[in-house]
């Protein structure tokens, strides 16, 4: 009796692309998601599982043959090649074999065709590094030293993976084809199926004497020191791409890219909104009433500004071109100084007397405010339409 069909994974959905997506669209979607969920960036266990699904989806959809299996309703990574295997299991001798075997019969396996061995040299993955900078550094740029742990080319074997004086050997099990064929019976009749060679893992070659430094991988992990040039005007969350400074691929393959993600530390005085800066300055009530002059220390200079007499709480002064330089183009943002007028909380007897005398000269005694024409009356009249 046949087992029920397994549910094929939605590889298109995992990468977030349509079923008619081009190879470039699939690659872009993969690189974007890989940067987001890479274990070096996102240590969350759920993100690591997501990263495995993303890699599996890219492996399938970047391979024309595997993608064709998906489009026909199968799953090339499922046991038995698509959830349609019989009691014998993958590679078993039961009356039914996997969906992959049936596809082999129609796309090269039955005709003796071969996909060929897998290349040992493959491109490396991208890497992401978080870099924390101060506001002055993001505003005016800086050459920042960074340290990154990545896979680099093995200098002992130069990526070959073999010990000195030795070479790769043709796999005796598959004869260098990288796959082996078997004949099995299915409900469609006799099928010749192909499977990756388990001896050489599909490479077609073996390494009799692996390099003692990299154990045959062609690369080793190490810590490297680099200097990254941060342009003036970068913002929190931006990424700077360093081409081919990421992971070297297996077999000494081309290195991926390194992305440096900028994280701006909070500043003690200024807050940033785009290229504009904001700060708050407290002035005494008397200074706001009489006017005064303030010295404001900007990011790269000192500016003297006049506070006009009668300045109200919450007033804002704008200093043009004293903010952050624009990342693209010339010029700078502005600096906004928000004024907080401070009212004294404790007065001695003389201060209180003088303040009461001042209020009397302006007709602002507390008792007067409750009379006709006082503050509350004016508010009432405004609501009643008598203003």
From TrEMBL:
Gene3D superfamilies: DnaJ domain (1.10.287.110), Heat shock protein DnaJ, cysteine-rich domain (2.10.230.10), Urease metallochaperone UreE, N-terminal domain (2.60.260.20). GO terms for molecular function: ATP binding; heat shock protein binding; unfolded protein binding; zinc ion binding. Binds 2 Zn(2+) ions per monomer. Zn(2+) 1 binds at residues 154, 157, 211, 214. It comes from the Bacteria. Residues 10-74 form the J domain. Residues 141-223 form the CR-type domain. One of its GO terms (cellular component) is cytoplasm. CDD domains: DnaJ (cd06257), DnaJ_C (cd10747), DnaJ_zf (cd10719). Keywords: Chaperone, Cytoplasm, DNA replication, Metal-binding, Repeat, Stress response, Zinc, Zinc-finger. Coiled coil: none annotated. Its cofactor is Zn(2+). A zinc finger (CR-type) spans 141-223. CXXCXGXG motif repeats lie at residues 154-161, 171-178, 197-204, 211-218. Zn(2+) 2 binds at residues 171, 174, 197, 200. Participates actively in the response to hyperosmotic and heat shock by preventing the aggregation of stress-denatured proteins and by disaggregating proteins, also in an autonomous, DnaK-independent fashion. Unfolded proteins bind initially to DnaJ; upon interaction with the DnaJ-bound protein, DnaK hydrolyzes its bound ATP, resulting in the formation of a stable complex. GrpE releases ADP from DnaK; ATP binding to DnaK triggers the release of the substrate protein, thus completing the reaction cycle. Homodimer. HAMAP family: DnaJ. The J domain is necessary and sufficient to stimulate DnaK ATPase activity. Zinc center 1 plays an important role in the autonomous, DnaK-independent chaperone activity of DnaJ. Zinc center 2 is essential for interaction with DnaK and for DnaJ activity. This is Chaperone protein DnaJ. The lineage of its organism: Bacteria, Bacillati, Actinomycetota, Actinomycetes, Micromonosporales. The gene is dnaJ.
């Amino acid at each position: 009796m046949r087992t029920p069909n397994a549910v094929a994974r939605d590889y298109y959905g995992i990468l977030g692309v349509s079923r008619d997506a081009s190879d470039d669209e699939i690659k872009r979607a993969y690189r974007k998601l890989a940067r987001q969920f890479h274990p070096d960036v996102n240590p969350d266990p759920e993100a690591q599982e997501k990263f495995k699904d993303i890699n599996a989806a890219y492996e399938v959809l970047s391979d024309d043959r595997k993608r064709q299996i998906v489009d026909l309703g199968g799953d090339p990574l499922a046991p038995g090649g698509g959830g349609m295997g019989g009691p014998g299991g993958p590679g078993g001798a039961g009356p039914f074999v996997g969906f992959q075997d049936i596809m082999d019969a129609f796309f090269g396996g039955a005709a003796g065709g071969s996909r060929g061995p897998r290349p040992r040299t493959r491109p490396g993955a991208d890497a992401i590094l978080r870099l924390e900078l101060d506001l002055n550094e993001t505003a005016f740029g800086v050459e920042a030293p960074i340290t990154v742990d990545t896979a680099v080319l093995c200098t002992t074997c130069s990526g070959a993976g073999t010990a000195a004086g030795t070479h790769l050997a043709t796999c005796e099990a598959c004869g260098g084809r990288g796959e082996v064929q078997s004949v099995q019976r299915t409900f469609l009749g006799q099928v010749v199926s192909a499977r990756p060679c388990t001896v050489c893992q599909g490479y077609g070659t073996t390494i009799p004497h692996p390099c003692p430094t990299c154990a045959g991988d062609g690369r080793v992990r190490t810590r490297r020191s680099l200097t990254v040039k941060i342009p003036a005007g970068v913002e929190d969350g931006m990424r700077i791409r360093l081409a081919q400074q990421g992971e070297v691929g297996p077999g000494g393959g081309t290195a991926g890219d390194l992305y440096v993600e900028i994280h701006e530390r909070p500043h003690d005085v200024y807050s940033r909104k785009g290229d504009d800066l904001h700060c708050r300055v407290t002035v005494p009530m008397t200074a706001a009433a009489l006017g005064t002059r303030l010295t404001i220390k900007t990011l790269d200079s000192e500016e003297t500004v006049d506070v006009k007499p009668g300045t109200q709480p919450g007033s804002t002064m704008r200093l043009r071109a004293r903010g952050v330089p624009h990342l693209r183009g010339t010029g700078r943002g502005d600096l906004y100084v928000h004024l907080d007028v401070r009212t004294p909380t404790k007065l001695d007897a003389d201060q209180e007397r003088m303040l009461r005398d001042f209020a009397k000269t302006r007709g602002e005694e507390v008792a007067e405010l409750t009379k006709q024409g006082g503050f509350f009356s004016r508010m009432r009249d405004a609501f009643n339409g008598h203003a």
